[in-house]
Amino acid sequence: MQAQQQNRRNFSRVLCTGDVVISDDKGEHRGQLVDLSLKGALVECTDDWSPENGSQHHLHIMLENAETPILMECTLAHVRDHNLGFACKFIDLDSITHLKRLIELNLGSHEVLERELYALG
Predict the structure, then answer these.
(1) Which of 57, 70, 80, 107 has the fewest beta carbons closer than 10 A?
(2) Considering the entire predicted model, what is its pTM?
(3) Rounded-to-integer distance, Cα 18 and Cα 1, Å
């Protein structure tokens, strides 16, 4: 199953750590970042919360050793145990610039990053 999921992914995931605040119209919840890509984030929820698939959320991601957060508007795509998979629907210019640089540094290839950006459409 894990190999099938990896094959379906069109975007590279970067393993990184940081605090995440997940907010919606009902309040805020805390989590820890597991990984990040141009299309979303995987977050381990650190409080007792069971959101519904398809629900809309704002993510405030504060990476370790970073001065500025990455902000995303997301849809909850899946829940597995305490891990929440979010699909990014909107990201501001400062956040995407920061995320692009992070991914490029981790991939070690500007060409791979350009292909992924092109795939975003």
Answers:
(1) 80
(2) 0.80
(3) 27
